[in-house]
Amino acid sequence: MKLLLIFLSVMTLTIQDKRTVTADGTWPYDIQMDYYNTGNKGSVKAKDTATLTLSHLDGIVIEKVEAYVRSNKDAGTGTFTVTANGEVVATKEGPYNMWFGAYNNTDFQPLTLLDQPIGGVDELVVQLIGLVNSIHIEKYVIYWGAQTPKTVTLMQSYEVYTTLTEESGGHGVTLPELPGFADWQFVGWTPTQVWEVIEQPQVYAANTVFRPTEDCTLWALYGSFPETAPTCMTQIESGAYMYVNRDLNIVLADVPDGGMMAYAPLDASNDQLYYYVDFVSPDTAYIAHAFSLTPIGYVGNELTVAASPWLVYHEGEETLFYMIYENKPYILWLNIWHSHEYFYAGLLQAEPGPSPMALMTAPMSCGQPTYTCHPDTEDVEQVSAPSRTYSVPFGPFELIINNGKKELRIR
């Protein structure tokens, strides 16, 4: 479908040397032009590449792209590729005589690379890869236009929340974030109005740029995600956990650096705070950062990136890790005072025993999520899950809970 344009402009980019083009005509205000030929100026021999990159185009519509080219006297083959916003939108491959009916080493002729409108373009790349000596480029001619600004109507339930109009066509609008409603969390904006579904419809996240192709309406989408609170491990079992000080509500964080680690506020939703604990026996375990798979170990009495066996003190909800160095126990502790300067997580010389330390699981879904655009209507009811199998992502892992039995798999 032809995109409606306010005006049509032409920019001509003439090659000056192997790294430079000069521009004539009209171009977007913030445009950045980059050209590089691995060969010489506009001459592209076999295995040479000439690449023109136009960026900061501000969402324009590209109507047509031409390259003015000539060949050698009786040879010249290459492949042109046109890419918009990282996606290939046109290719042109062949010997020169297939394009124009005969080889021509005298006159530069316009070769049409793209002849259909592409909207919302921020970056345009035109590349020629040489296959047989030689194709010569004189200039590029690009026909473009500014797209007509579009208006997006945002609905919150049955009421219009606001309307957003692009500053210029293709520029897009930034979608706002809304607060939750009772037990419903705001998910984002959907082009599909729904009342009660268990499969999430297409959604555009808040605080992102949405580029409409026409005037349209989006509805605020809400979700209900029933889940249980995180709990402390009471039975020795390998899995992904946070290593928690329950008195201070802080958890182990990051990976070893300079013999130490960090700690952070307890946040069960942050998958960067989870560690995979592999219990090889009830009193021995290996620890790795669950998201990066970085092992957590020790050398001497300092923490380091190494797969080291940790001794385990476990009683009820308490779990404490420690190691022995020079016949003394050192416990993995979260808030150690360093030289009257700062607190850190590290190895503290102390006897393992009763403490606030624990391994805490992630919140587990206990029902099917429900989505709606109308959380204030009485006819929306939460849908319970018939299955008792749940999946919780942890970086490269996936925690599967099937009727209470846990299994950690690599995703």
Which helices and strands, and how do they pair?
Blueprint (H helix, E strand, L loop, with lengths): L4 E13 L2 E6 L6 E6 L5 E2 L4 E7 L4 E12 L5 E8 L2 E9 H5 L8 E6 L3 E4 L2 E9 L2 E13 L3 E6 L2 E7 L7 E2 L10 E6 L18 E2 L5 E9 L14 E7 L4 E8 L2 E6 L9 E7 L2 E6 L5 E5 L2 E3 L5 E6 L2 E8 L2 E11 L3 E8 L7 E4 L9 E3 L16 E6 L2 E6 L2 E6 L1
Parallel strand pairs: 13-18
Antiparallel strand pairs: 1-2, 1-12, 3-5, 4-12, 5-11, 6-9, 6-10, 6-12, 7-8, 7-11, 13-14, 15-17, 16-18, 18-31, 19-20, 19-22, 19-30, 20-21, 22-23, 23-24, 23-26, 24-25, 26-27, 27-28, 28-29, 32-33, 33-34
Question: What distinguishing features does this structure have?
Answer:
Trefoil (Acidic Fibroblast Growth Factor, subunit A), Immunoglobulin-like, mainly beta, disordered N terminus, 3 domains, 7-stranded antiparallel beta sheet, 411 residues, Jelly Rolls, 12-stranded antiparallel beta sheet
Structure description:
By secondary structure, the protein is mostly beta strands. It folds into three domains: 5-147, Jelly Rolls; 151-224, Immunoglobulin-like (Sandwich), CATH 2.60.40; 244-359, Trefoil (Acidic Fibroblast Growth Factor, subunit A) (Trefoil), CATH 2.80.10. Helices cover 1% and strands 55% of the residues. It has one helix and 34 strands. The protein has one helix spanning 96-100; strands at 5-17, 20-25, 32-37, 43-44, 49-55, 60-71, 77-84, 87-95, 109-114, 118-121, 124-132, 135-147, 151-156, 159-165, 173-174, 185-190, 209-210, 216-224, 239-245, 250-257, 260-265, 275-281, 284-289, 295-299, 302-304, 310-315, 318-325, 328-338, 342-349, 357-360, 370-372, 389-394, 397-402, 405-410. Strands 19, 20, 21, 22, 23, 24, 25, 26, 27, 28, 29 and 30 form a twelve-stranded antiparallel sheet that branches. The protein is elongated and about 90 Å long. The chain starts with a strand and ends with a strand. Residues 1-6 and 378-390 have low confidence and may be disordered.
